[in-house]
Amino acid sequence: MLSSLKIRTMRNVSYVGMSQLMTLLLSLGTVAVLARILTPNDFGIVVIGMVLLNLFCNIQHFVALPADHRRYVSKLEHLISDYERDVGDDGLTHLGEILDMHDISMDPECGSLEEFVKRSSSNINNRCIHQHVFDTRLTARMIEQVGFRILVLVSQSPYHIIALCQRPVLRIEDREPDKSGAS
User: Fold this and answer.
1) Residues 6 or more apart from 92 whose CB is under 8 A from it?
2) CB-based contact 95:120 (threshold 8 Å)
3) 162, 17 Cβ separation under 8 angstroms
4) At what angle do helices 2-37 and 136-145 cross, to 10 degrees?
5) What is the pLDDT of residues 82-104, one digit of tens each?
């Protein structure tokens, strides 16, 4: 069970890392292209606009709270149980807690309570609810549970948790035997 979880975790971490790297490379490429095609004065104006836009986005992140801020942080044992029972995004085992604790005033897209119940009940189609709530401590416990070593773990308010981890190096004697019969 845990080796499968480790493999899925590693694959998902690599997807997130690659998307972050692509975003950075595209941003740098955009700035390089703009620097070549704009006059120095125009480029300066564009850069000032980009800095102000990034500053505004970061300030907005620090002010905003997710609509599930009233919910309790999930327990590691609960996450493992959901994994072992193969609870997917189509599972509605968390729906009662979500409906009770969701702050509708912070989620204008959900509409009325009735509309929110209807939307949440078909989460598999619209991916609008969070099945679990994470904090930095839970993230660290999850990473340690799958056997990774945490190199950096940062919480960026209000709801970003960034982890840089290292996969353990397996010794030859710790590897699973080859079931194909090949040496």
Assistant:
1) 121, 123
2) yes
3) no
4) 120
5) 888 888 777 788 888 888 888 88
CA distance 45 to 23: 22
The pTM of the full predicted model, rounded to 2 decimals, is 0.55
d(CA 130, CA 95): 9
Max CA distance (Å), the chain:
68
Q: Which residues of the chain are modeled with pLDDT < 70? A: 1-3, 5, 54-65, 157-159, 170-183
Q: Which pair of structure tokens corresponds to residue 156? A: 């960026």
Q: Is 125:65 a contact under the CB 8 Å cutoff?
A: no
Whose tokens are 């989620």? That residue is 107
Q: What is the pLDDT of residues 133-149, one digit of tens each?
A: 888 899 899 888 888 88
Q: How far apart are CA 170 and CA 183, in angstroms?
A: 18
Q: Looking up tokens 């994470």, which residue turns up?
A: 134
Q: How many CB atoms lie within 10 A of CB 75?
A: 12
pLDDT of residue 89: 73
35 Cβ neighbours under 8 A, 6+ residues apart: 43
